[in-house]
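[SOLVED] Predicted holo structure with magnesium ion

Edit: marking solved, answer below. Original request kept for reference. I posted the sequence and ligand SMILES and asked for the 3D complex as structure tokens.
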Amino acid sequence: MPQLSALSPPRTTTAVHLERVTKSYPDGPNTATALDAVTLSIERGSFTAIMGPSGSGKSTFLNCASGLDLASGGHVVVGGVDLSSMSPDALTRFRREHVGFVFQGYNLISHLTVAENIRLPLTLAGSRPVENRFRDLVASVGLTGLEERLPGELSGGQAQRVAIARALITDPDVVFADEPTGALDATTADQILGLFRTAVQELGQTVVIVTHDPRAAAFADRVLFLADGRFHGELHSPSVEAISARLIELGRRS
Ligand SMILES: Nc1ncnc2c1ncn2[C@@H]1O[C@H](COP(=O)(O)OP(=O)(O)OP(=O)(O)O)[C@@H](O)[C@H]1O
Ligand SMILES: [Mg+2]
């Protein structure tokens, strides 16, 4: 695997830090708290999975930690930069250059080719893609030869590989993925999760996924459990069985 991050400057060991992050939504005359004073650090070069029951705040966590949405209180620090006080324009620019996203539905632009979709974050940022880096990345996600295809001509697994390459092209501080394998069969899902593992182990990338699937979470170094907007413990390099048991426990307490 080529060293894609070899040209980047040294970075701090914490990729993402949340300090007492709260997110509330208006709920009729009341307020609903989706994230309740969450404090958490995510180390650079780690693979983290977030699990929890529906409505526990997983997507809200991802949206706040990635700067897609602003927290109601507290601080979100990505790559040493505090997002809390940024203007919307500055936040958009920062996200484009420092954060990668992968979603369940791939979110590819249908009239752009595979190559154009992967280069999109660089095009939007007005940077020139480094050809070697682009070629290495396309090869490492297994898309060589498919560069000129349109998204409509790809399988689900191939489309998700494009989304992952697009998320990695800027060598971001962190890649966030919300249910990245939710639409894939088990074999294809394993390949995609293996790709995330490789990005972490061989490229030193930092990956955070949200998943309902204990099999998917078992690919991570660290599995965090969310319930009612708070983290309730974590497991390190757990087995599928250990994750399933913890989820059952978590279900009992809510
Ligand atoms: N835009 C919003 N307006 C109001 N309430 C919201 C909004 N987004 C989320 N919520 C509420 O915040 C809580 C957490 O939602 P969130 O989408 O983060 O859950 P989740 O863990 O991702 O669930 P799922 O597994 O179903 O995707 C829920 O009670 C939800 O109804
Ligand atoms: Mg969700």
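OP edit: Confidence is low (pLDDT under 50) at residues 1-7. Thanks to everyone who chimed in.
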